Structure formats: structure tokens, C-alpha cells
């Protein structure tokens, strides 16, 4: 049994170099059984695009407002 089964985790990605690590973090959390959701600030899209993240989890991330 996975350690994070039935746990819901929200990841907020902001503008910073750590945004690059979010895809790997998300993948590891999902592997541990967590239900992961992601929200991004407009500045975060300067470092990582919302299209980078859907391959690592479902449902797709919530992009910043236009």
C-alpha cells in the first residue's frame, strides 16, 4: 500500500528556479499514492509551462488567469 493513498496535496508554483523541480516532486508524490493538484502564478510560467506538468499527473494543472 502506498504511504500517501487518499491524501490530497496542492502544490503552488511561483516564479523561481525551484519551479523546475515541481514536475519531479509531483511525479514522486503521485508514485506514493497522493492526489496532486497544481496551481501556478503567471511568473511561474516564465520557468515552466503548464504543458510540462500534465504528463506527470492527472487532472491537468490550473494555469494562471489570462
Brief summary:
With 66 residues, the chain is an alpha+beta fold. It is built from one helix and two strands.
What's the N-to-C terminus distance? 40 Å
Number of separate structural domains: 1
Sheet with the most strands: spatial strand order:
1-2
The total count of helices amounts to 1
Largest sheet: 2 strands, parallel
Features:
single chain; 66 residues; alpha+beta; elongated
What is the topological layout?
Layout (H helix, E strand, L loop, with lengths): L7 E6 L8 H10 L3 E6 L26
Parallel strand pairs: 1-2
Structure explained in plain terms:
The chain has one domain (8-56). A two-stranded parallel sheet has the order 1-2. The mean pLDDT is 78. The radius of gyration is 12 Å and the shape is elongated. It has one helix and two strands. It starts with 7 loop residues before the first strand and ends in a 26-residue tail after the last strand. By secondary structure, it is an alpha+beta fold. Helices cover 15% and strands 18% of the residues.
Amino acid at each position: 500500500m502506498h504511504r500517501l493513498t487518499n491524501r490530497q496535496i496542492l502544490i503552488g508554483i511561483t516564479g523561481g528556479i525551484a519551479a523546475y523541480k515541481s514536475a519531479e516532486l509531483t511525479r514522486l508524490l503521485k508514485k506514493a499514492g497522493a492526489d496532486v493538484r497544481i496551481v501556478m502564478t503567471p511568473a511561474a510560467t516564465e520557468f515552466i509551462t503548464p504543458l510540462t506538468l500534465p504528463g506527470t499527473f492527472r487532472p491537468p494543472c490550473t494555469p494562471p488567469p489570462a
